[in-house]
Amino acid sequence: MTDMQPTPDDQLLLDDHLGQLSDEDRRRLHERLRAEPELAARHRRLQQALAPLDAWTTPPPSSSLVGRILDEIADQRPGAPVVRESSLPHRHRGGQRLSMHDLLAVAAVIAFFFGILFPSMSTVRARSQRAACASNLANVGRGVSAYALAHRNALPYRQAANLSSFLPGAGNAEYAPNSRNVLLVARFRLVPARVFICPSDKRRVPLNEMDAAAGGENPDDYLCSYDSLNMAGPTPSYSAGSRLPYLSDANPMFTDRKFNAVNPTVTNSPAHRRSGQNVLLLNGSVIWSSTPNAGRHKDNIWQAGHITRYNGTEVQKSVDDTFLVP
């Protein structure tokens, strides 16, 4: 956002990113983001600028950290003047002076906090987001089950043109995000729209519940954090899918509406610091996979077969081939 002058809305966007807004204020802001393209653009720029901070992790502290700090305090370096404690100016707190013993205790507490508590808090937050993400996917799974029950065992599907692409700009192909299909379970009010947003994803905005029920056409990828089974290719019926992956954290090859030339065999989703991804199977269970090889037959869930380059029109070759796209 360095190329733009600050506006009063920037503080609001920053508070939203830091989770400081009330539910009502956040809802109103996200409605504005959908209605105001300029504000949405500023929001995206802010998320891009803060992405390195969100991805920052604290290395584990050395087991000798506290001891080294205390040794440093106690160390009498050569040439340093020796001053008796009685000659030092006294600081009073409640009628008592701050002794060397107090200083050592404070140093130990500070070392403990920064060396142990701070990275632990970061780890706890990441685990909490991962668990909440898995809960979201489980809720979507229940919605898909209800949809299949009402639609003769079919998976959610919204008709697209004969030639369509899940990425924009693919020649003459119509841009038809694959997420439109799974979002049908929100449009039919089988699940709340908020479950389609991963807690670790600060860029996307939940679909307004009234818009969801109205079935409005909106290809904006802000509506869904997750990537789903490509419905343009061969797909099984709901019951025949069993342990076939249906939905997962974002495919790293197709973030930001474009093809990213990453190595799909070793690259995890960016959603959880690339440590792995939550994956919803068609039997309703949610698994955590530390590698992309989470398909029914341990195939790579990011790829269609062994294709390595994509423009958005590629599809899987069989019902056993998992290919999750935005």
Account of the 3D structure:
- This protein is 37% helix and 8% strand.
- It has 326 residues and is an alpha+beta fold.
- It folds into 2 domains: 8-54, no CATH class; 132-325, no CATH class.
- The strands form 3 sheets. It has a 5-stranded antiparallel β-sheet, covered by helices on one side.
- α2 crosses α3 (37-54) and α4 (65-74) runs antiparallel to α5.
- The radius of gyration is 26 Å and the shape is globular.
Low-confidence stretches: 82-86, 212-217
Question: Any idea what the shape is?
Answer: globular
The strands making up the biggest β-sheet line up spatially as 8-7-6-5-9
**Strand-residue fraction?**
5-15%
Q: Ends: how far apart?
A: 27 Å
Short description:
This protein has 326 residues and is α+β, with helices and mostly antiparallel strands.
List strands and helices in order, with pairings.
Layout: H1 8-17, H2 23-35, H3 37-54, H4 65-74, E1 92-93, E2 96-97, H5 100-150, E3 164-165, E4 174-175, H6 179-182, H7 184-187, H8 209-214, E5 227-229, H9 238-241, E6 245-248, E7 277-281, E8 286-289, E9 324-325
Parallel strand pairs: 3-4
Antiparallel strand pairs: 1-2, 5-6, 5-9, 6-7, 7-8
